[in-house]
Structure formats: structure tokens, C-alpha cells
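Table 4 source record.
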Amino acid sequence: MNSRRRSLAVAVLGLAAMAAVFGFPQSRSTETATTAGSAPVTVVNTPLPVTLQGTGTVTGKVTALQGGSWNVGVATLPAVQLAPGTTVHVDDPARQAYSLSLCATGDTESCGVNPTTATIPLNKRFVIEFVSGYCFVRNTGIHGWTLTAPLNGQSYEHMIGDKISASDDDSTTGLFSDQTRIYVDGGQVDSLSVGVLAQGFSEHHDYGPEAYCHVTLSGYLVDTTSFPALR
């Protein structure tokens, strides 16, 4: 009998020792669940919407989509470099191709049906970019020819060189072609005219002195307001 009691007492003491060492699972689980920050938490249904208040920092790659209209401010504009030989027409797009032919003569010569004057259309400005043609002389000489044109209420004379001369009933012809930039206001009758620029000598043999130049003016017209008449 005493032997059985001693065995039971030993068993009870062994169970008590084991409980003291390992504790009770239910009590430890309850303590772990109620202690904040004791284990990492995994959220399955990510991503979650996040609202940022105040100042925050975002690192890594961020993808942004445009919502509505964007206004972009430019602090400085880059300088524009044009390639050599580039021409910028500041009066585009109103350019209208235009060309006419005239005949320049001296005091006594006549060009027949070829006119010596021209009228540019009203409210237009003729921009002469190129002149070409030829001059003929006999028993005289010329330095070239002149072109008289109105601009902003004034009349201006332009001189084009083609120096030739001939004597003793001989004759000669000289060609010319020049790039120009001459402005002619329109709306005034016969205000554009040409003439020869004589050298100042003449001879009379079997033929008298003669000099004339056939002139072609090429360029374009631009629309303008009305210009004052010549004074």
C-alpha cells in the first residue's frame, strides 16, 4: 500500500514539473495574441488605397497618368539656328508672283510698242527681286539704266550698271542680270519708269546716236494699305 502511494506521489510531482517548464498552450496563445508588435502581419488583398497627408517621400519608380489638361511652363526658350543660305520671308503668305517688261530710252529714241512706264495695282507693293535684259548703243555710250519708283509717298531713283559704248557708226549690245530688293508702291499711274544713264557723248555719221535697254523686272506683290500720293 505504501508503495502504491509513493508511486502516485512521484507521478503527480512529475506532471507538476512538466507544467512548470512548458506551461499551458492555451494561456500562451492568449498572451501572444494580445501582445502588440510581437509578430509580423501579412495582408493578402493588396494593394490598398493610401491617402497621404502632409509631407511624404516616394522612392522607386512611379507611374503617373494624365488627368485633364496639363499646363507646362517654359523658363527659357532655346535659340533657333538657321542653316547657312536659309531665307526667311517675313511677308509670307501674301506673296503674289509678279513680273513686267519695260524699255528704257534716251531723250530722242523710241522703243516702239514697248512701254517705258508701268502702273502697279492699287493697294499693292511690288518687291523687285531680279532685273535682267540687254542694252544697245550706236554712236554713243551709257553707264547703264535707271529705275524710278515711289515708296511711302516719295520717289526714288535706282541705278543699274551696264556700261557700254560705240562710235563711228558701230553698235554694241550688253547683257545684264542683277539681284535686287527694290520696293514700288502701287495705285499711282505710270509711277514706275525706266531710262538710260548716258555717258555724255554722241556722234553723227551715217547714223545718229541711239541707246535703249530692254528690261524685265521680276518679284512679287504684297497687299498693303493705301499710300500717300507723291508730292
